[in-house]
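Sample pair:
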Amino acid sequence: MRWLTNLRENGFRIFQFVDNTFNLPPSYAKALCRKIIQAGLNIRLLCIIYPKWIDGELVALMARAGCRQVSLGFESGSDRIMRAFNKQFDKEEVRAGSKMFREAGIERMGFLLLGGPGETKDTAEESLSFADSLNLDALKITTGIRIYPRTPLARTAIAEGVMKLDEDLLEPRDYMAAGMRDWLPERIAEYRISRPWVN
């Protein structure tokens, strides 16, 4: 906490907590917010939130501590794809958390990561519809998933012939589910036309 106070005393006022771990564990996030409130730091927080274990107490503390925007890294609106991504939450938890932040006056940005293993046109459309239903303030959509060495995605890409076993991944390589490479970018471009809040 002292580091935050020192930065505030030196004129810094806006702080962004990156990676979707601000609320992991929730007890730490609540304790941090309480200390910020008690210190009267008058700062602005932007946080990336893991869309699980969000409750009214946490949201209220975040708002009082100066949180003005959260990014919800749900990455899909399909429970099946969320399970494939090993997410430990489902759509209803995302929806509930998003609603609590909205009611607290905290802006919400969502993230969709489309085209991963098992993605189909139907699951992509399900994700887009889900994002629409949240009435977010902003939405960032990424198509394709970067492949990192020795990960489950790399093993999938090798098994599907997308890359070779000994391929150097220093240069970024993206995975895109079969049948999605031509359709998905066009569909996202079309989706963005009437939604200026989508990046």
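The chain has one domain: 2-145.
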